[in-house]
Design a protein that fits this description.
Number of strands of chain A: 4
Number of strands of chain B: 17
Distance between the termini of chain A: 24 Å
Distance between the termini of chain B: 67 Å
Oligomer: heterodimer
CATH class of the largest domain in chain B: Alpha Beta
Low-confidence stretches of chain B: none
Largest sheet of chain B: 7 strands, mixed
Strand content of chain B: 15-25%
Mean pLDDT of chain A: 85
Shape of chain A: globular
CATH topology of the largest domain in chain B: Aspartate Aminotransferase, domain 2
Largest interface: A-B, 22 and 19 residues
CATH architecture of chain A: Alpha-Beta Complex
Radius of gyration of chain B: 23 Å
Number of helices of chain B: 14
Number of domains of chain A: 1
Strand order of the largest sheet of chain A: 3-2-1-4
CATH architecture of the largest domain in chain B: 3-Layer(aba) Sandwich
Mean pLDDT of chain B: 95
Helix content of chain A: 25-40%
Low-confidence stretches of chain A: 1-5, 150-161
Strand order of the largest sheet of chain B: 4-10-9-8-7-5-6
CATH topology of chain A: Sufe protein. Chain: A
CATH superfamily of the largest domain in chain B: Type I PLP-dependent aspartate aminotransferase-like (Major domain)
Structural class of chain B: alpha/beta
Structural class of chain A: alpha+beta
CATH class of chain A: Alpha Beta
Chain lengths: ~160, ~425
């Protein structure tokens, strides 16, 4: 049981069991749907942009623990932040999860560092980044996205899972 | 002769340990644990005998086939055709020319769709498939239906994952032109009653294609006894290399079909006015074939026949029974696919844990299973699960590996408790 710490840490298991901001918003100003066709993960992210700030944010869907915990922690990380800040955290999360940048160089990642271990599991990277793709799509008024979407501006070529 | 004396012969013991010694990859450790390879439905491993055959071909026999008069070309051609002969006997085809080398099951099915379907299926015609089909036996027919204005009809399954044969029979009408059905379900392990289904279709003049990808590696297949028109399977699920597969077709069907791919080898003569196609099987083997892979597959079926397909089926069935009994006793674990006649495929879900998490955690224990929709999304929809975990056994698996799987699932439950 040597490597559970790499990914299935207590904080991730806790967010999987008790996801924060789970559910729907009644009249969101922005929302998007994200799918990973390879594993059937499917989540929606809805938010209210008040000026440039993210007010309410919620997510729901069917997914694995990595995806659900990532979505849950994402909502707590970007709630109250500006759109620009949220996009910056998103960029850093993707860079961390795909192993493109070292943790030390990421200034906004904070508690999200628990997902750093996913870079060693190429088939699970997409699980972790799906919520962030979906947030990015919502903020840019793209109704749906996919980890396989070529047109997705944040598409990260990370190999076929 | 003393007739009262009964000679008790012990049943031949299947020596999985001796067999495992043939497979170098099974000696690997993954994450510091001995590899427990239970993803055989996706691809099987290769014994040293096949690896050696590939090396011998590549080091002493390689040239292009059916081309030149030089010695190596003649050797390569005769070894390639010898492989075809081995495959003919492996499935008991009547003639060698009924065995076509393709790149795999998917390619074989696409060949039939283009060669038969596009020639003989038209607007308003109907094609019968089943809920259990792998995407490779759905999508080509969907493409054909879209192109021709034909219609797909789908045989439903019961909660055990068995085809409803009454419903199958009701789907036939005067527009039914083709049936495509898998021999064994890759997602659930169900062994379908294809002999009966083929006979029913033939009584109505409808040809039948069997997707045998999950059957050919695990049981004796006799295409003459089945009387199927087409039988497709892959080399890499059969201890052979990737990139090679077989389409068996009855000679009279293959002869009336149009070619699928055009190019060298599949022609008798070419002018810019007219091309005369080669005879079967070459009509369907355009371009340089995967020669090494075909010869490797020939060695693989020799290897399997040496063990005996009936012995393989019996050992795998014992593994399945043992795993099923144990898994049924585990609270929170649900087996998906409980057909009476099953091949050694065990699809399951663990309450509260997504299959991908199951797969990652089992991998930490060195256990390789498949997780996901198994390229059979209609099956997942039917059983209302987004995905399952799937342990699929081969003859080189052992009871101890079943124990490792069960212990691994307990660990998964503990982590998510």
């Amino acid at each position: 049981m040597s490597d559970y710490k790499a990914l299935y840490q207590e904080v991730i298991l806790d967010h999987n069991r008790k996801p924060r901001n789970y559910g729907a918003l009644e009249h969101p100003s922005h929302h998007a749907e994200g799918r990973n066709p390879l594993c059937g993960d499917h989540i929606t992210v809805a938010l209210n942009l008040e000026g440039e700030n993210i007010g309410a944010i919620a997510f729901q869907g069917e997914s694995c623990a990595i995806c659900k915990a990532s979505a849950s922690m994402m909502t707590t990380a970007v709630k109250g932040k500006t759109r620009a800040d949220a996009e910056e955290i998103t960029r850093e999360f993707l860079a961390m999860a795909t192993g493109k940048r070292d943790l030390d160089s990421l200034g906004h990642i904070g508690r999200l560092a628990v997902f750093a271990g996913v870079r060693d599991l190429p088939t699970r990277v997409k699980c972790a980044i799906l919520p962030w793709h979906t947030l990015h799509a919502a903020l840019n008024s793209i109704a749906s996205t996919s980890t396989e979407a070529e047109e997705d501006p944040m598409h990260a070529p990370i190999g076929d899972a | 002769m003393n007739t009262s004396q009964t000679i008790l012969r012990p049943a031949p013991v299947f020596d999985a340990q001796r067999i495992r010694a043939d497979f170098p990859i099974l000696k690997l450790e993954i994450n510091g644990k001995p590899l427990v390879y239970l993803d055989n439905a996706a691809s099987s491993q290769m014994p040293q005998q096949v690896i050696d055959r590939l090396v011998r071909y590549q080091t002493t026999q390689h040239a292009n086939v059916n081309r030149a008069v030089h010695t190596l070309s003649e050797i390569a051609t005769s070894e390639f055709e010898a492989a075809r002969h081995k495959l003919q006997h492996f499935i008991n085809a009547r003639e060698e020319r009924e065995v076509i080398f393709t790149s795999g099951t998917t390619d074989s099915i696409n060949l039939v769709m283009h060669g038969y379907g596009r020639k003989f299926i038209g607007a308003g015609d109907e094609i019968i498939l089943t809920t259990l089909e792998h995407h490779s036996n759905i999508v080509p027919w969907q493409m054909l239906a879209e192109e021709k204005g034909a219609k797909l009809r789908v045989v439903p399954v019961n909660d055990a994952g068995e085809l409803l044969i009454d419903e199958y029979e009701k789907l036939f009408n005067e527009r039914t032109r083709f049936v495509g059905v898998m021999h064994v379900s890759n997602a659930l392990g169900t062994i379908n009653p294809i002999r009966q289904m083929i006979a029913f279709a033939h009584a109505r003049g409808v040809p039948v294609l069997i997707d045998g990808a999950q059957a050919a590696p695990h049981m004796q297949v006799d295409v003459q006894d089945l009387d199927c028109d087409f039988y497709a399977f892959s080399g890499h699920k059969l201890c052979g290399p990737t990139g090679i597969g077989i389409l068996y077709g009855k000679a009279e069907q293959l002869e009336r079909m149009q070619p699928f791919k055009g190019g060298g080898d599949m022609i008798l003569s070419v002018t810019f006015e007219k091309t005369i196609y080669n005879t079967i099987p070459y009509k369907f083997e355009a371009g340089t074939p995967p020669i090494a892979a075909a010869i490797g597959l020939g060695a693989a079926v020799d290897y399997l026949s040496g063990i005996g397909m009936d012995a393989i089926a019996a050992h795998e069935h014992a593994l399945l029974d043992y795993a099923t009994v144990q898994m049924k006793q585990m609270p929170g674990v649900r087996i998906i696919g409980t057909a009476r006649h099953k091949s050694a495929v065990l699809s399951f879900t663990v309450d509260g844990v997504h299959p991908h998490d199951v797969g990652t955690l089992l991998n930490q224990e060195g256990i390789a299973v498949r997780t996901g929709h198994h390229c059979a999304q209609p099956v997942m929809q039917r059983f209302r699960v987004p995905a399952t975990s799937r342990a699929s056994f081969a003859f080189y698996n052992t009871m101890a590996e079943v124990d490792a799987l069960i212990a691994g699932i307990r660990t998964v439950q503990k982590v998510f408790a």
